[in-house]
Specification:
Blueprint lengths: L3 H22 L3 E10 L5 E8 L11 E6 L7 E3 L2 H5 L4 E5 L5 E5 L2 E11 L2 E8 L2 E13 L6 E11 L5 E7 L2
Parallel strand pairs: 1-9
Antiparallel strand pairs: 1-2, 2-3, 3-4, 5-6, 6-7, 7-8, 8-9, 9-10, 10-11
Length: 173
């Protein structure tokens, strides 16, 4: 049986190899900006900002949008081409030195600014007329027919001036 010292050395080598493998697979880095929840089930659509090795926005592919199958096993699933063209797709353009103007296909009039804030990158937009850090949208739908009917969207965030939670409901008339 190996000595305790040999076992400790092996444990450190194994830990180092694991960390090295993880860090190599973690590039490019991503930071969650916001997500969309739906009334249909617990699955969410997550939107991350992609970062280059310098820690700034990867201008070649700045946003990563994908499903998190929380109603199932929690796995990640890519958005389909149809989902990207319609409800969950986005457009992004550079804004300043290291920022973006971001809009979702389903809500082109609700532009967000992606900037580096106190705690990393964040999506900012007015919520209830107040500058805020946008963290999630909740979409209430009525199922049935070919496509679900959107009844309303709740925008959730935190005020930029004091950090307090803020919410705005946008009804679909």
């Amino acid at each position: 049986m190996p000595s305790a010292r040999v076992m400790t050395r092996r444990a450190w080598i194994a830990l180092g190899a694991t960390l090295l493998a993880f860090s190599a697979s973690a590039s490019p880095a991503e930071t969650r900006l916001f997500h969309i929840e739906r009334s249909k089930n617990a699955n969410i659509v997550a939107y991350d900002v992609r970062l280059n090795p310098r820690g700034t926005i990867d201008t070649s592919a700045p946003i990563d949008g994908y499903w998190m199958r929380l109603a199932e096993d929690g796995r990640r699933k890519e958005l389909s081409g149809l989902e990207k063209r319609l409800a969950y797709g986005w457009s992004a353009k550079r804004h300043g030195e290291d920022g973006l103007i971001l809009s979702l296909k389903a809500l082109p009039d609700r532009e967000m600014t992606v900037v580096h804030g106190k705690n990393g990158y964040e999506a900012r937009m007015p919520i209830a007329g107040v500058p805020a850090r946008f963290v999630k949208a909740y979409v209430k739908t009525k199922e049935g027919g070919l496509l679900p009917k959107v009844l309303y969207v709740d925008f959730h965030g935190h005020r930029l001036d004091n950090g307090e939670p803020i919410m705005e409901r946008q009804k679909n008339d």
